[in-house]
Write a structure and sequence with these properties.
Blueprint (H helix, E strand, L loop, with lengths): L7 H7 E10 L24 H19 L3 H12 L11 H21 L4 E4 L8 E9 L7 H11 L2
Antiparallel strand pairs: 1-3, 2-3
Length: about 160
């Protein structure tokens, strides 16, 4: 099983980066921002498939919410035109508010689910909304051995 970490700070200070996993955008339904829910094989022994899929589906639903066009979006656009876009110096758009919610959700997921498993989600906004990046960390004490060799040696010591 994966090395367990207690929190994000401990993960960043006591672990070394092993690899990064990228979940690509899903363009099957057009250019709306959504990510593939296909479970990456690199995360097999790190996180349960259902937890990963729930995270991606929740992120996808937030992005759908952010891109909805309704009365508020229409009003923001009209006010922007009427004030030569100066209004945006005084207020956040609905889209920006949802992006902040997404950032908070990712932080919460990292603290509760991903960091304890040696993983770290990166906000897609930091990668230009192209990919959902998941960094895979390993405890520095066991960094000299590969994950497969440490698992096989654990299996042989149990015999």
């Amino acid at each position: 099983m994966a090395t367990e970490f207690h929190n994000l700070q401990e993960l960043r200070h006591s672990a070394s980066l092993v690899t990064k996993v990228f979940v690509q955008r899903d363009y099957s339904e057009g250019t709306v921002c959504r990510f593939q829910t296909k479970f990456p094989s690199e995360l097999d022994n790190r996180i349960e498939r259902t937890l990963f899929e729930e995270t991606v589906k929740t992120l996808n639903s937030y992005y759908v919410e952010a891109e909805k066009i309704g009365g508020q979006s229409y009003l923001e656009g009209c006010l922007a035109c009427a004030t030569a876009y100066i209004i945006f110096l005084c207020m956040e758009t609905r889209y920006e508010k949802v992006l902040k919610t997404i950032t908070g959700y990712i932080k919460e997921q990292n603290e509760k689910i991903y960091a304890p498993r040696g993983l770290l989600l990166t906000d897609p906004i930091e990668r230009g909304m192209r990919v959902l990046e998941i960094s895979v960390f390993e405890d520095r004490g066991s960094a000299s051995s590969s994950p497969s060799s440490s698992m096989s040696s654990a299996g042989s010591s149990a015999r």
